[in-house]
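Re-run requested by the PI after the first attempt was lost when the workstation crashed. Everything re-entered from the original request form. Ligand of interest: NAP.
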Amino acid sequence: MSDFLVKRDDFRRCRVAPSEPPQLEPGQALLRVDSFGLTANNITYAVMGETMSYWDFFPAPAGWGRVPMWGFAEVERSGAEAVAVGTRVFGYLPPSSHLAVTAVKADERGFIDGSPHRAALPSAYHRYLTTAADPFYIESTEEVQMLLRPLFFTSFLIDDQLADEGLTDRGPIVVASASSKTAIAAAFLLSRRQGVELVGLTSPRSAEFVAGLGIYERTVAYDAIESLERGPATFVDFAGDAAVRQAVHSHFGDELVHSMAVGVTHWEDFEGGGELPGPAPVFFFAPDRVSKRSEDWGRAGLEQKVADAWHPFREWTAGWLEPIHDRGFAGLESAYLDVLEGGVDPKAAHVVSLRD
Ligand SMILES: NC(=O)c1ccc[n+]([C@@H]2O[C@H](COP(=O)([O-])OP(=O)(O)OC[C@H]3O[C@@H](n4cnc5c(N)ncnc54)[C@H](OP(=O)(O)O)[C@@H]3O)[C@@H](O)[C@H]2O)c1
């Protein structure tokens, strides 16, 4: 067995380490990690590793961490009832050859990892869905599921919250890191609503790509924020860049209706900045919206709405998304460093296969 480890205090240091095969106890199953997507979202799990406990999902030697990934795995061995060897599942995985899970609440749709070290962590990450019973699953679209499905769920909730809170008709929605996949998915959904004006803020190298997507009314480089018309606006921030945040808040001032902090793609520029004019940024916490909409629509109702919205989006991405295929732990390491350094073309995304 092997693990890909990242130094917690220096993300540029990483290594592949051998690990011991676990002794399975009754109720446990061993998953063989097959493949997963790797985007800036995974880097954010490392950036927020301590503050939001992302390092705690998949323990690692002291000082090191295993960055969580979303992807597919197969049950290689099973001592768990209702979890058959050979079952293919989608879920939250370590960058490792294997994961031992304690399968609870297992049925034909999947199971939850009830491992004690995960009990205090958000439950949204604990479910492993069998592909055979999953409304998202289409075998030929596995790559796009690994890459975009977890991001799309967030984007769905952002679009829903902005509309629910009346923010879609109070001036433009200004999106920072507009070329990120999560921003694109949110903008795709928002662009389908009547009368929503979307402004995409991005780096000069991504501007042509962002404009070409046809979902933002305007594409503006980070150094041209002052060219935006002043007036009421909502800021949705996927960049987490202190200078961009400062520039947007200073430009719109008290007319900024809402400032939503979603991500930190610019992870090295996260800290700093002076006092912010306008409303204080509010961190977007997906589990809160999941709870609210699960109460309103039922959990199955929410999942059905997300699945219904997913398929048109997935079809649309086929027109531009270019997966980059990486194989084995060497491929994983180079993909990780590429994403960490922001070297990925915005129309591309890494899919790592650990299959032999
Ligand atoms: N709160 C939540 O629940 C939640 C859920 C899902 C995702 N998110 C967050 O949304 C963000 C987007 O994730 P994603 O996976 O969709 O991203 P992605 O598609 O991999 O983002 C790529 C874009 O991010 C910017 N970027 C990436 N690396 C950079 C670097 N090292 N330096 C500067 N810019 C860099 C560039 O955009 P520009 O040139 O346009 O800036 C690049 O085109 C992440 O921070 C993620 O954590 C949050």
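Saved to the shared folder this time. Residues 39-41, 44, 151, 154, 177-182, 202-203, 206, 238-239, 262-266, 284, 286, 341-342, 346 surround NAP (CB under 6 Å).
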